[in-house]
Amino acid sequence: MAQLTQKELFALDDLLNTEQILLKKFRNYAGGAQDAQIKTTCEQLANRHRQHYDTLMGYLY
Questions:
Q1: What is the pTM of this model?
Q2: What are the residues whose beta carbons fall under 8 Å from the beta carbon of 30, sequence distance 6 or more?
Q3: 49 class by beta-carbon count within 10 Å (0-12 exposed, 13-18 middle, 19+ buried)
Q4: How far is 14 from 47, CA to CA, in rounded Å?
Q5: What are the tens digits of pLDDT across the range 26-61?
Q6: Which of 19, 40, 44, 52 is deepest in the core (most CB within 10 A)?
Q7: Cβ distance 50 to 56 under 8 Å?
Q8: What distance in Å separates the CA atoms of residue 36 and residue 32, rounded to the nearest whole number?
Q9: Of the candidates 58, 61, 57, which has an alpha carbon nearest to the alpha carbon of residue 17?
Q10: Contact partners, residue 33, CB within 8 Å, separation at least 6
């Protein structure tokens, strides 16, 4: 695997933080949703952001 530059590492850090925030927000929204369809959508979005986070973490290994 190629070595990442300092600029790429900073960008990756920003993206990881953003995905982590979105994951937490959608989990929180799902937890508070009364409507089943909204709850399901929020859970799906949380899972998608978890996948994004995991993919980005893969660039560090």
A1: 0.88
A2: 39, 42, 43, 46
A3: buried
A4: 19
A5: 999 999 999 999 999 999 999 999 999 999 999 888
A6: 19
A7: no
A8: 11
A9: 57
A10: 39, 42
